[in-house]
Design brief:
Radius of gyration: 14 Å
Structural class: alpha/beta
Number of strands: 5
Order of helices and strands: EHEHEHEHEH
Largest sheet: 5 strands, parallel
Shape: globular
């Protein structure tokens, strides 16, 4: 069974719409996922160290206990890039344990670092489920 961690920003209306669209797509396909968005927005809780620690711990555990990390690269959010790096470090230690899929709703390509970390790059939401299941093979390649 595929269990997906959704890494991506959700700080403005467009970003939130992208994340919710991904969640809806996975729900329709009966794919289990962990979305940090559901825990709350850290921006709404600035200065709350306890909330920040709770979010951090939940996200780290969410990444650790999945077999696929879906990374929304739109906006190149620093937190999302940390999540990608953490997922990739686990993959380097246990290569067969997980897949990393990058996704762009804005049709962004990948730089060399992102391309090397990603197993597959998706720019069409209609290919997302197939990519998670391993049935879509758009090898991530560097475009910049």
């Amino acid at each position: 069974m595929n269990k997906v961690y959704i890494a991506g920003p959700f700080f403005d209306a467009h970003q939130l719409r992208v994340i919710k669209n991904i969640e809806h797509t996975l729900e329709k396909a009966d794919i289990e996922y962990f979305s940090p968005r559901i825990l709350g927005n850290i921006s709404d809780n600035k200065g709350n160290a306890e909330f920040a620690e709770k979010i951090f711990d939940a996200n780290i555990n969410g990444i650790l206990h999945n077999n696929c990390t879906l990374v929304v690269i739109d906006g190149f959010d620093p937190g999302t890039m940390v999540e990608l790096g953490y997922a990739y470090s686990i993959k380097r230690i246990i290569p067969s344990s997980r897949r990393i899929i990058t996704y762009s709703a804005k049709d962004y390509g990948l730089n060399v670092m992102l391309a090397q970390m990603s197993d597959c790059h998706v720019t069409d939401i209609n290919n997302l489920v197939d990519a998670i299941k391993g049935d879509y093979h758009n090898k991530a390649e560097s475009t910049t």
